[in-house]
């Protein structure tokens, strides 16, 4: 019996690609279509239906998708360099089709995923750069990086206004301008107003550019029941008033943070220890934190607050949690 080898001198043959494509339905079961995006070698004149005929841009892939069919867009890393693996945005990319999923194909690192979305240098500040206005989407394994040279205007890397989306293992970093011009009050790495969204295993913020005016990495302006698990909130700031997360009065029911760490980098030039990681005054509900890890912040909240409840590693609120008295809630 003879057979045709699937690889020839290290190259991937058409037979292997066909075999892989035929198995995608088993790996990613869906009643919808699977589209491919390769920002370096793809073309928006292709049909996007295979790795060999991949689209170049996410916008073109989104246009091809049908809402509510669980269509999947596979965004392929093609290199370890940013320039060869990034889909650059000239305007806001609005992911606006329900049940349309976006999956980064890469090694799945903690941060710096090579399935990367950023802004063109000519698009100085996008507010937001990417917006998830759809509902029920899975977005996984992507890096959202907004570098905004010489902008001086408000920018947001990722805004989520939709509901019941899951953002998994993504880096979400705004204000990546080394000149500091983009460090503007109101700028955010992540802005949320939707409800019942899940963020899991995400790196949110940036510790390479100092926050000298920007007042928080994450702002939740409205919505209910947003959930963060095993997320890493990272910042480098010169402001004692800086917060990792600010939660507005308009938020409802609960916001939950499970096994998350909050880091304000220290021992760096101009770094300051902010007085609290969470900023909140009132809300129609409470913030629940289980096993938070806080580094470089003086306290979890600047002052004990009835709207923030913290549960320690041993299942009880204890004196080992900064800002929380043993045996009592956060009042």
Helix fraction, binned, reads under 10%
Average pLDDT level: 86
Span of the ends, CA to CA:
77 Å
Classification by helices and strands: mainly beta
- The amount of beta strand, in percent, is 35-45%
Query: How many separate helices?
Result: 2
Number of strands: 27
Shape: globular
Spans with pLDDT under 50 lasting ≥5 residues? 1-10, 314-323
Order of helices and strands: EEHEHEEEEEEEEEEEEEEEEEEEEEEEE
* Largest β-sheet summary: 10 strands, parallel
Rg to the nearest angstrom?
A: 21 Å
Q: Enumerate the strands of the largest sheet in spatial order, edge to edge or round the barrel.
A: 3-4-7-10-13-16-19-22-25-27
Give an overview of the whole structure.
The chain has 331 residues and is mainly beta. It is built from two helices and 27 strands. The strands form four sheets. Strands 3-4-7-10-13-16-19-22-25-27 form a ten-stranded parallel β-sheet, with helices on one face. Strands 5-8-11-14-17-20-23-26 form an eight-stranded parallel β-sheet, with no helix packed on it.
Secondary structure topology:
Blueprint lengths: L6 E2 L2 E2 L1 H14 L6 E4 L20 H7 L6 E6 L9 E4 L3 E3 L4 E6 L10 E4 L10 E3 L5 E3 L2 E3 L10 E5 L5 E3 L2 E3 L14 E5 L5 E3 L2 E9 L4 E5 L2 E7 L2 E6 L5 E5 L3 E8 L2 E4 L13 E3 L3 E7 L2 E3 L12 E4 L20
Parallel strand pairs: 3-4, 4-7, 5-8, 6-9, 7-10, 8-11, 9-12, 10-13, 11-14, 12-15, 13-16, 14-17, 15-18, 16-19, 17-20, 18-21, 19-22, 20-23, 21-24, 22-25, 23-26, 25-27
Antiparallel strand pairs: 1-2
